[in-house]
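To whoever is on call:

I kicked off a structure prediction for a single chain this morning and the downstream step that reads the tokens threw a length-mismatch warning. I double-checked the sequence; it's 164 residues and nothing unusual in it as far as I can see. Pasting both halves so you can look.
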Amino acid sequence: MTDGDEKDKANCLATRGILFFGVPSQGMDISSLVAIVNGKVNENFLKGLRPDSEILRDQHWDFCKAFPYRSCKIISFYETEYSPTAKRGPNGWKMNGEDGLLVGPSSATLGSRAWEVGPNYSYAIKRNHSDMVKFSLRDHWYSIVRQILNDLVEGIESIEYIDA
């Protein structure tokens, strides 16, 4: 890591794992949302999430530079079921439009650290974007995510965290 102060660097070095759930690191389908934010404050934010976004590209590379070491494991989860998109009706905007895959596997998986290839680094969750992190105790995916978290902290006796 080249940017940031000493606290930032220490916190990055202390990070043992990051789990991403449907994070659009290479963009997402914003087509149904553009009309909702047209001319509003968050329009630029939304446009920053499109697949050809320079902002996302820069953030992606900055993130990879911040975590260039193998001691931090990055695991990505991506949805496989379609989500309803936004549609304008007589009572305003609702998420009841045509179904679509909001964040595809290629965008939801980080894919820039050469050693993180294979089934232990990316998981397809049979859920839509909104439901992929809604777990119950008896949920199959709860067990998998819990085991991944346990594996990440196994063997760590102490980590010194730096206050922000």
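Update from on-call: the warning came from a stale cache, not from the record. Cleared it. Sanity check on the structure: The helical segments are 6-14, 34-37, 43-47, 54-66, 105-108, 140-153.
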